[in-house]
Write a structure and sequence with these properties.
alpha+beta; Rossmann fold; 2 domains; eight-stranded mixed beta sheet; 16 strands
Amino acid sequence: MKPQTIKPSIPKGTRDFNPEEMLRRNYIFDTIKVVFQKFGFLPIETPAMENLTTLLGKYGDEGDRLIFKILNSGEFFEKAIENNNNLKTSKEILPFISEKALRYDLTVPFARYVVMNKNNIAFPFKRYQIQPVWRADRPQKGRYREFYQCDVDIIGSNSLLNELELIQIIDEIFTKLNIPIVIKLNNRKILTAIADFIGESEKITDITVAIDKIEKIGVEKVIEELVTKGISEKAIKLLKPFFELASKNLTSKKLIAELQKILQNSEIGQEGLTEISTIYNYLENIDCKADVEFDITLARGLNYYTGAIFEVKAKNIEFGSICGGGRYDDLTGIFGMPDVSGVGVSFGADRIYDVLNELKQFPESGNTSTKLMFVNFGEKEEIFCLKLLQQIRNAGINSELYPEHAKMKKQMSYADNKKIPFVALVGESEMLENLITLKNMKTGEQKNVVVEEVIEILK
């Protein structure tokens, strides 16, 4: 019996990347990596999967639902049912069938790494990490189930100079990528103070999760969500002036002054406002090309943020955030290492790719790997070209020799399809004179040059 043919496919929310896309992605990764290293950050990597207990409870209820759980190996299901007949809900059965999960982000695994390696780390520890993460989210434009994060964190220091440094890193990376941006800035201490002010301090998580959606769904829908979460009518009435204040387009200094009046009796609120003021004072002393806006509706839904929070959006394009993060004062405490403060941001490489694509901002040089191809005229010629090819590669120029003695049209089509900018023609006459006929594939111009000139031109 003939085996059934399976139509190849990939899971929803994941993608294959062709060579051109990979070259463009590597352009993003390389740009980010160079800036991270410039500011003194060191690379680490953590496993794709973590123990489920490491991840659960760190991202709030919504985040927990989006964690991809990994089923235990062996006859786990039968054993779970056999030994626990009373299990009914997926939450009850989960500990018996799954002990591991794909990582949801890079920050929690980083906190786990710090605790496990604390005796070998010099604090403050500045690390960067560029790896994929997975979320069981509904796939849509700019949102994938598998995507790369490029994280940069400083842990073991309370200084607000770290927040400034992250703003500088964000500014430099997006300047290099030629993406005009706005950096939105807020502080979770201010949001905590607002929750206290409206008399709903115990529901701070529900309030921040709802407020974080304000730009996406609007004020009215946010209020509807707050009602479903049990926030009282009186509290919502007290919350509305904050929304109105946010919509007035006040300068950061004026907004800080207004909030200082409203939250004058809140110690934590004043602390948050002082931190925001300090960051703005630092910004006045450096050259920052990006707009840095104080936005009191910015909440960042993750539970572990405790201080400054950041979100970056591209100007002149309707798109979600392309970078975000904040300060977390005790994330390592969960793993038995309390009172270690950290701050970091994560760059969404996939969203940055989509923005660059839409803005047509990818450099042409980022679309090609090979700069020069030697045409193969035959056995004698290919042997002659091998030494030239090695000399050119040793000079750091990506180059290749067509592997077969094929028709010229086929070889030139190959160079065109790969967007190779130069072709080297070395036939009998060139071999006799020790020359290379160098053809510019864009202009069609040809000239006879020695190998040293080829290197000079291509460099």
